Amino acid sequence: MLRIGQAIRDEIVAHARRDHPDEACGIVAGPVGSDQPMRLVAMTNAERSPTFFRFDSSEQLTVWRELDDLDEEPIVIYHSHTATEAYPSRSDISLAAEPGAHYVLVSTATSGRDDDSVEFRSYRIVDGDVTEEEVEVITHGS
Amino acid sequence: MAVEVRIPTILRTYTGGAKAVGGSGSTLSEVIDSVESGHPGLKERLIEGADLRRFINVYVNDEDVRFLGGLGAPVSDGDVVVVLPAVAGG
């Protein structure tokens, strides 16, 4: 199960809307081993594409080094789908390299940039196996 | 020439859990070969055919080697090579 604060969830959704129709991507960092997503880092989609994303490689190195320095890890790795449902694509599955992370998929296929409801779902992806998990949004005290 | 090669979590099965291993060579290609000799299997995860795998990022002293000549990127004593799987998908 993914437990995530309302404010962070809303930031992810806002990022996905802002970049629509291109895919948006980023991470939510948290202390190593905590399973608590605390700090959102919106990443640049170097592909600037409606069908593909890739973290900018220099930015990724900078952010990963910062995680190391702060004893953090990517608790959530998120990206948006802008024309299809919030389910991992074949390339999402084959390229998933963080078996400990929650892979969050957001779909802006029906909302676009508007303030409409956005699909927000979370998965574990381990060795090519996808398991959807429940998302609990923490609305206060977080 | 001695260089440090930093290994991402997902590839540490090849290094007995070590975060970094030593390598040597004057190009990235030679460094990878030197690391492979002590940690067989690692090279296959980094290289496909004659090139770096598309979704593996390799940096020499913080510079993406795609801008330094790829596998031919020059490496000097004391350099740090970082390997990071790209975060990508569709």
List the helices and strands and how they pair.
The complex is a heterodimer of chains A (142) and B (90).
Chain A: E1 2-5, H1 6-19, E2 25-31, E3 39-43, E4 53-54, H2 57-69, E5 72-81, H3 90-95, E6 102-107, E7 119-126, E8 129-133, E9 135-138
Parallel strand pairs in A: 1-9, 5-6
Antiparallel strand pairs in A: 2-3, 2-5, 6-7, 7-8
Chain B: E1 2-6, E2 20-24, H1 28-38, H2 42-46, E3 47-48, E4 51-52, E5 56-60, E6 63-64, E7 80-85, E8 88-89
Strand runs of chain A, count: 9
| End-to-end separation of chain A | 17 Å
Number of helices of chain B: 2
SS field, number of helical segments of chain A: 3
Biggest interface reads: A-B, 26 and 17 residues
- Overall body shape of chain A: globular
Low-confidence residue ranges of chain A: none
Major β-sheet profile of chain B = 5 strands, mixed
Intertermini distance of chain B: 40 Å
The structural class of chain B is alpha+beta
Biggest sheet character of chain A: 6 strands, mixed
Task: Enumerate the spans of chain B where pLDDT stays under 50 for 5 or more consecutive residues.
Answer: none
Number of strands of chain B: 8
Based on CA atoms alone, the radius of gyration of chain A comes out at 14 Å
Portion of residues in helices of chain A?
A: 10-25%
| Topology order of chain B in helix (H) and strand (E) letters | EEHHEEEEEE
- The portion of residues assigned to helices of chain B is 10-25%
**SSE order of chain A:** EHEEEHEHEEEE
| Residue fraction in strands of chain A | 35-45%
Helix and strand content put the structural class of chain A at alpha/beta
Oligomer: heterodimer
